[in-house]
Amino acid sequence: MNQEILRYDSNLSAADREICQVLTEEIDKALPELKSKIWHGSPVWFINDNPIVGYSKLKHGVQLLFWSGQSFEEVDLKPVGNFKAAEVLYTAASEIGIDQLSRWLKKSIGVQWDYKNIVKRKGELTRLKEEDHGT
Questions:
Q1: How many structural domains is the chain composed of?
Q2: For the whole model, what pTM was predicted?
């Protein structure tokens, strides 16, 4: 497990820490080859420097964010921002559907938008082909 992420989790309340521990365990189990780090203050997992999934403590719970989540066609993921990200908010670890989370994590590998080069492309987001994912 990433020590930076463990430190992030250790600063949370017991309930939020439990949510984050479940998320970290499931993400690491489903996507063991991904690099993870604290990015913009939150735990995030990457493929070739492209953000895929991460979580953040927000005022009303823990946000699980998939950068390409709007393209997963999953009703329980809610759109976020101006690009293709989607989220779910948890207030208790018991709300996490492990089978559902596993399905989303599998989709996060197959459906990727190129956030890594969004600045270079002046805000234009392009979809990566599966062979470009580098996993």
A1: 1
A2: 0.86
